[in-house]
Amino acid sequence: WVLMVTAQTPTNIAVIKYWGKRDENLILAINDSISVTLDPAHLCTTTTVAVSPAFNQDRMWLNGKEISLSGGRYQNCLREIRARANDVEDEKKGIKITKKDWENLHVHVASYNNFPTAAGLASSAAGFACLVYSLAKLMNVQEDNGRLSAIARQGSGSACRSLYGGFVKWVMGKEENGSDSIAVPLVDEKHWDELVIIIAVVCSRQKETSSTSVMRETVETSALIEHRAKEVVPKRIIQMEEAIQKCDFATFTHLTCADSNQFHAACLDTSPPIFYMNDTSHRIISCVEKWNRSEGTPQVAYTFDAGPNAVLIARNRTSAALLLQRLLFHFPPNSETDLNSYVIGDKSL
Ligand code: DP6
């Protein structure tokens, strides 16, 4: 027999960034962060997990290609979920698995992204969140999403925020074992539903260095990152939560853009310096800044993760349509600017 579960998890984009760990194995951050979860129709991972007595080892396929599960991150997630497994019974199929059986049963995992993994768009967030969620369903784990987020966090920090829709805060926590380092939903996807997210794919090449190792170098060598984590982010988190509650787009834009810029400044302050944005990214920033200033009230917020692609958050559909017009005018697709496609994703509408 084979027992299967399929789940779908969207990716999330941080508006107050996580950058820097206080514990690399447990993945504990040096500051709180806030993100918005995207609509699963646009950027998400679908994962099927299966268990059968015929499986003699844990195996995983990502977009059809087998990947190694030997990395500590996968092992940590599998171990944590297995430790919480419960009895499972499927009467129709005549399957009965006891809590104890799970120790000797192996799983097969097949995971697909509905966006190109090579596009350099956050895929580990949706991937680990979906892995943990689907395994928890398969093994009848009775933990709430907060507790599951602490397990997904051990796969990839940003993954813990993908367990909820809407705006989500990852509370860094204080405990050494990470038990209080969990995701907390701020507002659900129905709140502030006029926002529209457009991702301008500036470069579809895969990242050269993993964000994990750069993060470590930033913590070890940048003076700015400590100031950011201790002095800047705590204030921004409070202001951002208030802006989200009030749907205050001007404050939201100011904080989102400033935080993205400071994160990239910290990367530049790292030795050796890291340049995630390229000329096209910089031109997009100028274009948005000029437009926002000429309108008097901001129309679009921008934020860039560990890569050159722009995530643009428009205040409403009208601004989003105007933004697309502007982008197409300044960066015609397939021109030498290599801004080669747009992914349009409403905020988990
Ligand atoms: C720039 O979550 O990918 O996207 O915890 O090492 O897996 P690991 O890092 P990851 O880093 C994400 C960094 C970011 C900002 C953010 O999502 O908050």
TrEMBL record:
It catalyses: (R)-5-diphosphomevalonate + ATP = isopentenyl diphosphate + ADP + phosphate + CO2. Performs the first committed step in the biosynthesis of isoprene-containing compounds such as sterols and terpenoids. It comes from Solanum tuberosum (Potato). This is Diphosphomevalonate decarboxylase. Residues 197-349 form the Mvd1 C-terminal domain. It is an enzyme of class 4 (lyase). Residues 10-183 form the Diphosphomevalonate decarboxylase-like N-terminal domain. The keyword Lyase applies. Keywords: ATP-binding, Lipid biosynthesis, Lipid metabolism, Lyase, Nucleotide-binding, Steroid biosynthesis, Steroid metabolism, Sterol biosynthesis, Sterol metabolism. Belongs to the diphosphomevalonate decarboxylase family. The keyword Lyase applies. It comes from the Eukaryota. Its EC number is 4.1.1.33.
